Each structure stands twice: as structure tokens, then as C-alpha cells.
Amino acid sequence: MRFLTYGSTNIDLIFTVDHILAAGETLQSTSLTKSAGGKGANQSTALAKAGAAVFHAGKIGSDGLFLLDLLQSWGVDTRYVRTYDGATGQALIQVDRTGQNAIILYGGGNKAITVDEIEETLASFGEGDMLVLQNEIVHTDTLIRRAKERGMQVCMNIAPFDPSVFDLSLSMLDIIVVNEIEAAALGRVAQKSAYEEILEQLVAAYPGAQILLTVGAGGSYYGFGNERHHQPIIEAEVVDTTAAGDTFIGYYLASIGRGLEPKEAMYWATKAASITVSRSGAMASIPYASEVFG
Ligand SMILES: Nc1ncnc2c1ncn2[C@@H]1O[C@H](COP(=O)(O)OP(=O)(O)O)[C@@H](O)[C@H]1O
Ligand SMILES: [Mg+2]
């Protein structure tokens, strides 16, 4: 199985500050880190590190060319990433001394993707291939519909959640991945509901899709038809949970691509994510297959 991640490719600028800025305030940052980000790029990285054949598609400006080198170094095929005259997507992240953050997102290239580029890219994919989506680019509904027309399977991580996702052709999806917050919003249930209850709601609302619900330290849940699974976490010393969800998705899908059953795929995804949370950083913290599968 080949994977096509059509998704966000961002430059993350991380400023450490004493406290999150208030209106009118000017603050010195004690450190500045520039790193590669975007849920799409993270998921492509996780798929590649897990050993899957993965193509990343999207759009960046000349300021983001280093991202292509990085993705390629992990084995991601970047031939479908377009460049344009504007800026690459950016996340301006403040992290305060307690670890709280505040983030400004600028869509940049992620919002400049065109339908023509999508058509051109999908023309090289079809049956036996899987499209992997998140909610950080434009024309997502076109992507879902055109990919299904071509016989592809489609997995969407409904993140970040916003109410406009209800306008998407969600009933056409083969796999829906959500965390507890996204799941409650998507299922229109109270966030304090039991995870099993939220899962049932989503299984009922989207019967054509396999539902994967990840709940941080509570592990992950799977529901499809009459099949249900729960996979607890593998304990790890938590350093930085950034990219845990993206690692989970990449390793889950790569495992499915190797012919494993959902229950087994959840185990490997959980093992990979437990390594990611034990390291700092996003893409760089995602483990290689040799560290996960042994
Ligand atoms: N503290 C933790 N210790 C070990 N594994 C974790 C921890 N937090 C998350 N994980 C693993 O990563 C997966 C995804 O994390 P989660 O927080 O649900 O994703 P997201 O980042 O999308 O909110 C979890 O299902 C679990 O397997
Ligand atoms: Mg979480």
C-alpha cells in the first residue's frame, strides 16, 4: 500500500517566555527554536520512519525548502510538494515557564493549494493507495471526493477541529482519527462523557468509517461495526507529548499497510507514541521502525 499525505507543511518558531504575552506588552524571549512542523508533515514523517511508502503533497514558499530536505532524509517522497511565491505556513509558538503555550497559525502555502494541483497529484494514485488528511489545508472536501472516485481509501485526522468539518463528506471516509476533544465535538456529545460512549456515538454517526479515538494517557479506542478494542498506553517518562498523535497515526497506518489487524496496529502505534513522548521535539522525536518493531 502506498500512502499520499496531502497536508500541512509548516515552519514552527518556538519562543520561550516568562509568561504568555498580554495586549500592549513587549517581552524578551530567552530562546528561539526554528523547527519543522505541520500535522501533515509530521504524519508523513511517522509513516516514512515506520517503513511505509509515503508521498507528501502540499505547498511551501522558498523559506520552507529546508523542510523538503528534512522530509527526504527520512524517506518521504516530496515530488508533489509545490512551491509558490508566498510564505510557508508558520506557527508562532510562545511557551511560558510553566510549559503552557499560545500559538498563532499562519496558513501560508497550506491555504494556497489549488484544485488543479490536487487533480494533477491524484492522477498518479488509485486503488490500493490511501490518502491521509488532517484539517489544516484548503479543498479538503475535493480531496475526499476525488480520492474516493479514484478508488483510494481515505483516512482523516479531524484536527484541529472546527465546525466547518461538518460540511465535509465525512461519511465517505474509511478511517476517522480523533483525540478526546475532537471526538466530543464531532460526536456532539459533552466532553465529560465516558470515552466508550463517545466512541459509540461516532460509530453510529459514521458507520462506514473505522473510528480511532486516542485519549492521551488513557490510550486508544477502536470501533467499527461490532468490533471494539481498547489499547492502554505503554508507560514512558514523559518529556514532550508533541507529535504523539501524529506518531500514532503514522505507525497505525503503516501497520495496516503491512496487513496487520487493527488491534495489532494499535499496539505498534502505542509503542511508537510512547517513544515519541519520551523525547523532546516534533518530527525528530518520532522513532524509527527499528526502535519500535525491534
Ligand atoms: N503520557 C503518555 N505516555 C505514554 N503514551 C502516551 C502518553 N500520551 C499519549 N500517548 C500515546 O500517544 C497516543 C496519542 O496521544 P493523544 O494525546 O491522544 O493525541 P493528540 O496529540 O492528538 O491529542 C495515545 O493514544 C497514547 O498511545
Ligand atoms: Mg492529547
Protein described:
- The chain is an alpha/beta fold and 294 residues long.
- The protein has one domain (2-7, 37-91, 107-292): 3-Layer(aba) Sandwich (UDP-N-acetylmuramoyl-L-alanine:D-glutamate ligase), CATH 3.40.1190.
- It has nine helices and 13 strands.
- The protein has helices at residues 39-49, 65-73, 115-122, 140-149, 180-187, 195-205, 244-257, 262-276, 289-292, and strands spanning 2-6, 10-16, 31-37, 53-60, 77-83, 89-95, 101-106, 129-133, 153-157, 175-179, 210-214, 220-224, 227-231.
- The strands form two sheets. It has a nine-stranded mixed β-sheet with strand order 5-4-1-8-9-10-11-12-13, with helices on both faces. It has a four-stranded mixed β-sheet with strand order 3-2-6-7.
- The longest helix has 15 residues, at 262-276.
- The mean pLDDT is 96.
- The structure holds adenosine-5'-diphosphate and magnesium ion.
**Top-tier CATH class:** Alpha Beta
The backbone outline, from C-alpha atoms, is globular
Number of domains: 1
Please report the number of helical segments.
Answer: 9
**Tally of DSSP β-strands:** 13
Biggest β-sheet: strands ordered side by side in the sheet: 5-4-1-8-9-10-11-12-13
Largest sheet: 9 strands, mixed
